[in-house]
Design goal:
The protein is mainly alpha-helical. The protein folds into two domains: 92 residues, Helicase, Ruva Protein, domain 3 (Orthogonal Bundle), CATH 1.10.8; 88 residues, no CATH class. Helices cover 60% and strands 0% of the residues. It contains eleven helices and no strands. The longest helix is centred in the first third of the chain and has 16 residues. It is elongated and about 55 Å long.
Length: 191
């Protein structure tokens, strides 16, 4: 079982991974500069990490708990614990059959999902109509996140969060490429 301090350290690393363009949780093995026990003792949010520590059984589960609560909102949202647990359960369900899940979402996208300012796909992401994992897979083939970040203000951390999601995902890349090319084969992508 993890301690509340251990959960806090993992949380700091996951947040840094998804909000900083330079920090990579895998490269630094979860270490951050602000993860000392003194920093933890000064934190006003210690209680939430005690709750999370009771909910998760391993470093991996804690990492995925915090990851789920960043990717579905574009920012760090763990302080409503029941909602945070629901996001974690959603992550686990989608992770179970990720290739199938993303293939279904891509196949069901409207043909004009890349149109608009910002694109309809972004609006679907924010409303929960399409998952960050699916947007990641689409971006690997269609390369639009950089344009989103550059051209659309007020979209928060979504481009950074989504672009750094890849190392956490396991799916059949070949199958998704086929689904994406079938969906967008003859369409003009205006990103």
């Amino acid at each position: 079982m993890l301690s509340d301090y251990g959960c806090w350290r993992i949380h700091k690393a996951v947040v840094a991974h998804f909000t900083s363009k330079k920090y990579d949780i895998f490269e630094y093995r979860g270490r951050t500069t602000a993860d000392s026990e003194e920093h933890f003792k000064k934190s006003r949010a210690k209680g939430i990490f005690k709750i999370v520590a009771r909910e998760v059984a391993s470093v991996r589960e804690a990492t995925e708990f915090f990851l789920a609560n960043i990717i579905y909102t574009g920012e760090d949202q763990i302080f409503e614990i029941d909602v945070a647990k629901d996001r974690y359960i959603r992550w686990l369900k989608e992770k179970e059959s990720l290739t199938f899940f993303m293939s279904e979402q891509i196949s069901n996208l409207p043909g004009d999902c890349m149109d608009g300012n910002p694109p309809k796909l972004f609006e679907m992401l924010v409303r929960g109509g399409v998952s960050p994992q699916t947007v990641f897979a689409l971006d690997r083939e269609l390369h639009f996140l950089h344009s989103w970040e550059k051209n659309y203000f007020g979209i928060g951390n979504y481009p950074t969060v989504i672009s750094k999601l890849g190392k956490f995902l396991r799916y059949n890349d070949t199958k998704l490429k086929k689904v994406i090319s079938e969906k967008f084969d003859n369409e003009t992508i205006s990103v």
